[in-house]
Structures are given as structure tokens and as C-alpha cells.
Amino acid sequence: MGAVISCIQSLFNAIAGCIMAIVHGVISICKAILDAILAFFAIILRCITCGKCGGRRKTGGSHV
């Protein structure tokens, strides 16, 4: 009888480990997406605040 209980416990431990791995994977994917969104907004914020966005050119006299 002890072997059956041990087998059932091992089965539940394996299922729990699988579920935890899936949850960890989903959380990692969500974290990567959020990090990408935050990096994108950080780039936009940097462009807006310092004005060095590449598309803007200085209008001024030539330096001779």
C-alpha cells in the first residue's frame, strides 16, 4: 500500500512541477513584453526631452 501512495505522490509532484514550469514560462514572457514596452517608452521619452531624435536638424549659420 505504501508503494501505491508513493507512486501517487510522485505523480502529483510531477504534475505540480509541470504546472509551475508553465506558469514560470508565462510570467517570463509577460516580463519580456513589459520590458520591451518600457524600453520603447524610454526611447520616446529621451527623444522628446533632449531633442536629439535624428529627424531634426539644427538651423543655423555655417561654421567656417
What is the topological layout?
Blueprint: H1 2-50
Strand proportion: under 5%
Report the C-alpha radius of gyration, rounded.
27 Å
Number of domains: 1
What is the string of SSEs from the N terminus onward?
H
Helix content: over 70%
Structural class: mainly alpha
**Main sheet properties:** none
What are the segments in which pLDDT stays under 50 over at least 5 consecutive residues? Answer: none
Number of strands: 0
Annotation field: number of helices: 1
Give the mean pLDDT. Answer: 86
Note the gap between the termini.
95 Å
Shape: rod-shaped
Transmembrane segments: 26-48
Keywords: Membrane, Transmembrane, Transmembrane helix
Report on this model:
- It is rod-shaped, with a radius of gyration of 27 Å.
- It starts with a helix and ends in a 14-residue tail after the last helix.
- The protein is mainly α and 64 residues long.
- It contains one helix and no strands.
- The longest helix is centred in the middle third of the chain and has 49 residues.
- It has one domain.
- The mean pLDDT is 86.
- It is 77% helix and 0% strand.
Distinctive features:
64 residues, mainly alpha, 77% helix, transmembrane, membrane
Summarize the structure.
The chain is 77% helix and 0% strand. With 64 residues, the protein is mainly α.
